[in-house]
């Protein structure tokens, strides 16, 4: 089911209305107010934007005016901000032509998606990006539809796609961030003490699948993401290696989302991938492939500890609870190992999972049209290694070894397949010795809470 845009807008405006006042710093600490001029659609406004940021990189408020359209036809990169509020009240536009964007990305010789040219780069301490609280203003329009539709049959996204934003700060915030039809990845959030709230990401497609339209990719400590709506075609949030104390709550995610993810962890086999104290609570998940998801690479190393998903409502979700410790990326053989190696990944280690809980899940499992448009192979990437799927699975837990999953606990899992059959589980290697309070029988078949 596609949620009508009007319903999403209603959802977002009600969550906007409920929003607590922002964490604004007193104006006295930011005495400079700098308004960004616009060419009114006649030119690339990026040079003017850069000029304003160069002048107002410190203790300033930089304002994109309401009612004004800004052409951001080349990337904006400001890496020396300090105590700056960025008020985005106008609407920003990337080029509508794929070639214009690719020209820029190709100049940097970064053409594979693992690389990461960002269209907006904001870095430095105390950055507050504050979009407009009015749903019609403060959008970044990236015209991603053309990019999604240009993807060939069974492709996984065309080359030279930029990421939308790198937001790297300490003691900063991102509020009312609004992204319409991002080309691919939305925001890389990096740093410490960052508050993201009232974001609205809309990557719904009227044509082909919006590959890699991740909502928030997080690497940081003390990061909170709340009161947001993320409709997209990849992870709504991906908590990456090196993240600690991350909270994701009161959010709605959906469309062809790949859910609330930890990972992927351990792609690089000789580095430790650690995350800890990650909490997801009070989230509605609609039509997504995954709800609560953990993914790590076999042969990776590290520790994921104290991770919880609580009070999660799912509607028409294919895999509400999913753990894999043998993850691989679809399609792109060059990303399997890193360093140009494409074969021979050794299964000699696991990213160990410890103290995981899933509590109070309700809703429906997608029985009738499982999966989504991201399937570009046979079997689909999301079915790999799961040959006996019934699509009635409330829980899939696949541990790489008998020692790699410890202290898992599932409580009050009330998930029902749309077919009204009994919910089932696939469970591998979550042994009772290490998981005495698992909460169900770790075996394949009917899901039996214990
Ligand atoms: C369930 O989600 C799938 C995949 O997004 C979609 O194709 C299907 O129409 C949805 N079904 C219902 C009943 O909403
Ligand atoms: C753009 O339009 C605004 C409002 O009409 C006007 O004040 C401004 O001078 C225009 N800017 C340019 C560069 O034409
Ligand atoms: C920030 O960098 C810009 C461009 O490199 C430079 O012009 C400006 O002076 C710098 N500002 C501060 C406060 O360092
Ligand atoms: C950019 O590079 C990609 C990958 O090599 C290529 O497919 C595309 O045509 C190039 N586009 C432009 C405008 O240079
Ligand atoms: C953020 O600000 C608080 C209060 O001013 C301070 O204690 C903390 O060290 C700051 N965090 C960072 C990462 O700078
Ligand atoms: C596993 O093998 C890879 C590739 O040979 C190596 O880089 C990695 O350090 C090994 N891991 C362990 C835990 O031995
Ligand atoms: C990751 O955690 C393990 C186990 O606690 C520890 O030995 C290792 O040093 C940590 N690595 C990093 C990079 O934090
Ligand atoms: C587990 O993580 C949560 C935050 O997600 C934190 O409040 C709690 O103190 C952590 N527990 C331990 C034992 O560290
Ligand atoms: C796309 O992939 C599917 C599944 O592997 C295959 O059946 C189909 O032939 C492929 N289509 C093209 C045009 O390659
Ligand atoms: C459970 O199902 C998984 C995935 O289909 C399979 O790999 C595994 O062998 C099964 N375990 C048992 C004991 O049948
Ligand atoms: C379960 O763990 C054992 C080692 O502890 C491993 O040999 C086996 O392959 C694992 N099973 C699956 C299905 O991954």
TrEMBL record:
Main location: secreted
GO MF term (any one): polygalacturonase activity
Keyword annotations: Cell wall biogenesis/degradation, Disulfide bond, Glycoprotein, Glycosidase, Hydrolase, Repeat, Secreted, Signal
Keyword Oxidoreductase attached: no
GO CC aspect terms: extracellular region
Signal peptide residue numbers: 1-19
Subcellular location: Secreted
Database matches in SUPFAM superfamilies: Pectin lyase-like
Biological processes, Gene Ontology terms: cell wall organization; pectin catabolic process
EC number in record: 3.2.1.67
Reaction(s) the record says it catalyses: [(1->4)-alpha-D-galacturonosyl](n) + H2O = alpha-D-galacturonate + [(1->4)-alpha-D-galacturonosyl](n-1)
Superkingdom, taxonomy of origin: Eukaryota
InterPro entries: Glyco_hydro_28 (IPR000743), PbH1 (IPR006626), Pectin_lyas_fold (IPR012334), Pectin_lyase_fold/virulence (IPR011050)
Residue stretches in coiled coil: none
Disordered as annotated region, ranges: 22-42
Transferase found in the keyword field: no
Family under the similarity heading: Belongs to the glycosyl hydrolase 28 family.
Record function comment: Specific in hydrolyzing the terminal glycosidic bond of polygalacturonic acid and oligogalacturonates.
Protein's name in the database: galacturonan 1,4-alpha-galacturonidase
């Amino acid at each position: 089911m596609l949620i009508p845009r009007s319903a999403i807008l209603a959802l977002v405006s009600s969550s906007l209305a409920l929003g607590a006042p922002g964490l604004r710093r007193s104006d006295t600490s930011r005495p400079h107010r700098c308004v960004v001029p616009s060419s009114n659609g006649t030119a690339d406004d990026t040079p003017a934007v850069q000029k304003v940021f160069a002048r107002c990189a410190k203790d300033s408020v930089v304002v994109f005016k309401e009612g004004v359209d800004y052409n951001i036809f080349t990337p904006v990169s400001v890496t020396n901000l300090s105590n700056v509020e960025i008020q985005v009240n106008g609407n920003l536009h990337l080029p509508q032509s794929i070639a214009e964007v690719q020209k820029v990305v190709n100049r940097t010789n970064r053409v594979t998606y693992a690389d990461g040219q960002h269209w907006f780069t904001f870095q430095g301490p105390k950055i507050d990006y504050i979009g407009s609280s009015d749903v019609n203003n403060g959008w970044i329009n990236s015209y991603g539809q053309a990019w999604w539709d240009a993807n060939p049959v069974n492709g996984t996204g065309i080359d030279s796609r930029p990421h939308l934003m790198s937001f790297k700060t300490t003691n900063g915030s991102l509020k009312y961030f609004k992204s319409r039809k991002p080309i691919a990845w939305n925001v890389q959030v990096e740093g410490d003490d960052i508050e993201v709230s009232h974001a609205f990401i809309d990557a719904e497609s009227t044509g082909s699948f919006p590959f890699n339209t991740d909502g928030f990719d997080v690497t940081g400590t003390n990061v909170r993401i709340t009161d947001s709506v993320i409709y997209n075609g990849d992870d709504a949030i991906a908590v990456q290696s090196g993240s600690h104390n991350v909270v994701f709550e009161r959010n709605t995610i959906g469309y062809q989302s790949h859910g609330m993810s930890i990972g992927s962890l351990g792609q690089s086999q000789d580095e430790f991938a650690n995350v800890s104290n990650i909490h997801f609570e009070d989230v509605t998940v609609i039509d997504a492939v995954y709800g609560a998801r953990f993914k790590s690479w076999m042969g990776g190393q590290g520790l994921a500890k104290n991770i919880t998903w609580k009070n999660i409502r799912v509607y028409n979700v294919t895999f509400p609870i999913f753990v894999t410790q043998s993850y691989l990326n679809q399609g792109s053989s060059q990303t399997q190992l890193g360093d140009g190696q494409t074969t021979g990944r050794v299964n000699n280690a696991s990213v160990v999972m410890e103290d995981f809980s899933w509590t109070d899940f309700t809703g429906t499992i997608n029985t009738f049209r499982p999966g989504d448009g991201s399937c570009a192979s046979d079997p689909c990437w999301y079915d790999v290694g799961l040959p006996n799927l019934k699509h009635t699975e409330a829980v899939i837990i696949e541990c790489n070894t008998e020692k790699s999953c410890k202290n898992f606990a599932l409580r009050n899992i009330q998930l029902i397949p749309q077919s009204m059959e009994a919910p089932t589980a696939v469970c591998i290697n979550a042994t009772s010795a290490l998981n005495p309070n698992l909460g169900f029988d770790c075996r394949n078949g009917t899901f039996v809470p214990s």
